[in-house]
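F.,

This is the one I mentioned.
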């Protein structure tokens, strides 16, 4: 199982866009890849450790806990990364 984590907060104008791109890319992947991906959304407002690490960089996308992108998410780059797993 691959986990794609989108870290943001309420009121972040880029966060819904980042989450939408992640959801769209995963939905468009072949079933054998997409069915093995879990998307989770976390807020820096709910976790002091996340806030300390990422407050200046949200939205942040992690893949299996590893940094993938911040601020703007490239659909092509995300797709390529997920297909190569």
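My design for it:
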């Amino acid at each position: 199982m691959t986990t794609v984590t989108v870290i943001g907060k309420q009121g972040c104008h880029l966060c819904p866009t980042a989450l939408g791109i992640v959801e769209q890319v995963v939905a468009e992947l072949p079933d054998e890849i997409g069915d093995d991906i879990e998307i989770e959304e976390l807020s820096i407002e709910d976790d002091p450790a996340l806030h300390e690490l990422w407050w200046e960089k949200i939205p942040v996308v992690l893949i299996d806990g590893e940094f993938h992108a911040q601020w703007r998410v490239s659909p092509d780059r995300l797709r390529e990364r997920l297909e190569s797993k």
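The mean pLDDT is 97.

Talk soon.
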